[in-house]
Amino acid sequence: MRVVVVGATGNVGTALLRALHAEPRVTSLLGIARRLPDRGTEPYVYAGWGAVDVGSEQTDEAVVGRLVEQFRGADAVVHLAWLVQPNRERERLRRTNVEGTRRVAEAVARAGVPHLVVASSVGAYSPVADDEPRREDWPVAGTRTSHYSVDKAAQERVLDEFERAHPDVAVARLRPALIFQADAAQEVVRYFLGPLVPVSLLRYGRPPAIPLPAGLRLQAVHADDVADAYARVVLERARGAFNVAARDVLSGQDLARIAGHGRLVEVPPSAVRGVLAAAYAGRVVRTDPGWLDMALGVPVLDANRIRSELGWAPRRTAADALEDLLEGMAVGQGTGSAPLRPASPRPPGDATVPVPRRAGAEPRIPDSMDHYLFGLYLSDHFTGATAGLERLELMTRTYADTPFYAELAEATEQLRGERELYRDLLNTLGVPRRRHRQVAAWLGEKAGRLKLNGRLTDRSPMTAVLEAELMRSAVLGKIGGWQTLREHADDVGLDAARLDELLDQARAQVELFDRFHAWARERAFRSGTVPG
Q1: 134-138, 197-201, 385-389: which has the highest mean pLDDT?
Q2: In this structure, are residues 414 and 505 in contact, taking their beta carbons and an 8 Å threshold?
Q3: Which own/partner contact pairs does 429-437 have at CB distance under 8 Å and 24+ positions apart?
Q4: What percent of the chain has pLDDT over 90?
């Protein structure tokens, strides 16, 4: 089977790649994302990749056409792509979530794919006021005050229309409960909590008491179990709606026991909503009150259909899934994709690039070279790498929600390694680093951020253009440094072949910043454009 997964870099998509890779009947996997992951890491290495933004501002015809090219020859398309942030940009969310689903469905029909599997949600269901389990025939009108729920209900209507127009395509929709795994911890923090909520304190212990709205109960399911459900639907070409949830329903007391020390402080829901509304209005948290309304009103899911028809059974309880998420939050866990990136973009131990020594030679500055000038030259390149690394780290954070995040993060790690190479080379050659120059470069880079480009409180779209030009110039200067070392490799005792590899790496970085510049300049001067 050939399976295409749209939105393959998120919480469920990442787990689904693992599940489908382990299935012998799946012989070809293609991941589609607007921000490509680190394709050299698991599980992303298991799939081919295509970059398509289903919520692009381009015309429907342009986006659908690109999707058709990717879908041809597929036995199934699994559509998981969904935006929950930026929470305040309602038009953008709907364009991706609802119109994006319509585009994917249309491309499935045009490409002749026989099976479409779509991620719906418990949030699509109409609210209830009891704990009676509901089957898949419960109305899907959503919670009116929740944009997420409204869009999920609208997505269901898109699928209804598509099924009527294309009865030859088997359409399945999965409606899971909350989906947790450790690798999604930082996604949850970024999308729902924000930087001011100190989740890192979980590594030192759990809070003594947990305040929760009275009457809250929730269902959850581990991402790996959800992935197993999707895989079974794909392999059996199942159609229709399927609820997906672990058997246990977590009460407020259960949540207090898992997240804290068992002490629950029940708070009137109206009071919680008022506090949440104020915090959201003050941009303290990223969760608007509609999420609370939906959480308090969604039904308990009856998942007997997928158990009986497809033999699905969760391997972990809802409590296990929540505990896994909390442990991931404590350590800042994540993976090599933009949505699931860890708390720190720096992979431990990955930044070391050894000095390119020539076999049988110890690097040294020979008497035939001016020791002072050559040492000063190397020190200046080390200084340039210091400033360049600071700027590129900022760019990686700033443009995390663009198609360039994965490549910028990779280039950041490459530059970090190159900087350490220069540091080690200076130490090996006995050349002083001239720390005052690095401090000046660091301060200069920070001062350069004060250039406002006509904006007082936010970044100007023009900043991306200027940063691309700055980094491209810096990399061209770095190429000159590698060329100089390559010229004197034999004299200094360096491995010329390794320096050639560093030159190729730098040229690839120039190409990256050329593409980033083209993307930035196309957007920068349009009226109403915001960075990213």
Answers
A1: 134-138
A2: yes
A3: 429/363, 429/364, 429/365, 429/375, 429/378, 429/492, 431/365, 431/375, 431/378, 431/379, 432/375, 432/379, 433/379, 433/382, 434/376, 434/379, 434/383, 437/379, 437/380, 437/383
A4: 56
pLDDT tier for residue 86 given thresholds of 50, 70 and 90: confident
Decide if pLDDT at 134 tops 90: yes
Are 373 and 414 contacting, i.e. CB atoms less than 8 angstroms apart? no
Spell out the alpha helix ranges (H) of 47-168.
60-71, 90-94, 100-111, 147-165
Q: Looking at residue 147, what is its pLDDT?
A: 94
The first and second tokens of residue 148, run together, are 């997420």
318-336 pLDDT, tens digit per residue, is: 999 999 999 898 888 888 8
Q: What is the mean pLDDT of residues 8-29?
A: 96
Under DSSP, is residue 482 helix (H, G, I), strand (E, B) or coil? helix
Q: Kindly report the length of the chain.
A: 532
Characterise 112 by phi-psi region: left (phi > 0), alpha (psi -120 to 50), beta (else).
left
Question: What's the CA gap between 24 and 37, in Å, rounded?
Answer: 24
pLDDT score, position 456: 44
**Residue at 293: amino acid letter:** D
DSSP string for residues in 184-253: GHHHHIIIII-TTS-GGGGGG---S-EEEETT-EE-EEEHHHHHHHHHHHHHTT--EEEEE--S--EEHH
The two structure tokens encoding residue 266: 């029940």
What are 77's strand-pairing partners?
4, 116
Contact between 503 and 418 under an 8 Å Cβ cutoff? The reply is no
Other CB atoms within 10 Å distance of the CB of residue 438? 19
Residues 250, 318: contact at Cβ < 8 Å?
Answer: yes
Cα(86)–Cα(82) distance, integer angstroms: 11
At residue 134, the 3 state secondary structure works out as strand
- Of 451, 472, 455, 449, nearest to 521 by C-alpha is 472
Summarised one tens digit per residue, pLDDT across range 159-169 is: 999 999 999 99
Q: How many CB atoms lie within 10 A of CB 85?
A: 15
Q: What is the mean pLDDT of residues 418-437?
A: 77
227 vs 335: CA distance, rounded Å: 17
What is the pTM (predicted TM-score) of this model? 0.72
Question: Cis peptide leading into 86, omega within 30 of 0?
Answer: yes
